[in-house]
Amino acid sequence: MIGNLYDHKFETPFNDPQLPNWADGYLDKFCDLFWDNTWKEGDEAIASLEIDMLADRYAYIKEGMALRAFQIYKLYKDLGFKTFKEYCVKGLKKSVYYVKRVIKAAQISWSLMLEGFTELPDNVSQAQKLASSAGRVSEEVDETVSCWQEVLGKAKQESKPITATYIETTIIGETTPLLATAKLPRDVWDKLKAQAKQQGVKPEKLLEEIIGNYLDESSEPETQTEPEPEPPLTNETQVNQASLVEWESDLQQLVDQHFEEYKESNTTSDISSIQEGESSIRRPPT
Asked: For residues 180 and 136, which has the higher predicted lDDT (pLDDT)?
């Protein structure tokens, strides 16, 4: 009963707990690490544990591959969903925007692996920032590989951790964008302020990052394998109102999804400040 000798603060499972069908490996890992301690039996076992940690570090790559397979082969239909978007929202409980970001991040890091890199972006946000920054270096040539090499070299030389902010500033330097204003529904703004406070940033900064990431992703053409049905058009008033409701809903999802991503990484991109207290942000044209 070696596991009881250590205060590992993971609750010990007794009485054959009913875990999800995908969690058997987690129970095995608990027993290996904190109960049997079999991983301590020699250097080879310790090296194997380190390999497991590295694989888990880049787990978003496998996730992105699986999500892409569900998308292009339309596997979601076998589960009773009509569209990929419906599967993301109702099946995965994630916005389709976030799911597409995971797929894109996995594609980027997989390409880096094939180029021989053993150190990759730690998460979706870093991979996305690498792609968007490299795209600003050249619109004609893919500079992702050379940009990532530059980031790794500079981080090693300066002994600094790699974050999304560090990636951007290394590749394109500090930037000071022009400021503008728009309007948001008060309830959306209040929720944004609350989440920004938890992250220790200004709500204007958080909003700028959310919308900036959205624009980076939405600039890509939609896959032809998954056309989204268009709602029937009646008159201009109904169209404008529907567009506004959909935009507000998408923005709410972006705010919620960004907060979820923040838990994944303890850093967020530093963005140029927008004047404190400017809560009037203009709705998009309808």
From this structure: 136
Find, among 88, 84, 85, 125, the residue nearest to 108 by Cα: 125
The answer to whether residue 146 scores a pLDDT higher than 70 is yes
> Which residue is associated with the tokens 């239909």?
77
The DSSP letter of residue 35 is I
Residue 281 forms beta bridges with which residues?
A: 182
Terminal-residue alpha carbon distance, the chain: 66
Tokens 């959306």 belong to which residue? 188
pLDDT surpasses 80 at 128: yes
Please choose, from the candidates 176, 166, 96, 97, the residue with its C-alpha nearest in 3D space to the C-alpha of residue 133: 166
Residue 261: alpha-carbon gap to chain centroid: 5
- Look up residue 176 and give its amino acid: T
Question: pTM to 2 decimals?
Answer: 0.63
The neighbour count for residue 231, using CB atoms within 10 Å, is 11
As a whole number of angstroms, the distance between CA 164 and CA 44 comes to 34
DSSP string, 50-113: HHHHHHHHTHHHHHHHHHHHHHHTTGGGGGT-SSHHHIIIIISSS-HHHHHHHHHHHHHHHHHH
The more confident residue out of 134 and 217 is: 134
Helices assigned H by DSSP within 182-276: 186-199, 203-218, 236-264
Residues whose CB falls within 8 Å of the CB of residue 5, separated by 6 or more in sequence, listed in order: none
For 250, what's the count of Cα atoms within 13 Å in the CB-facing half-sphere? Answer: 17
Question: What's the rounded Cα separation, in Å, for the pair 250 and 215?
Answer: 12
Residue with tokens 């570090």: 57
Q: Are 60 and 106 spatial neighbours (Cβ–Cβ below 8 Å)?
A: yes
* Mean pLDDT over the full length of the chain: 78
Report which of 216, 217, 199, 214 is spatially closest to residue 270, judged by C-alpha positions: 199
Q: With bands split at pLDDT 50, 70 and 90, how would you rate the model's confidence at 89?
A: very high
| 171-180, 188-197, 217-226: least confident range | 217-226
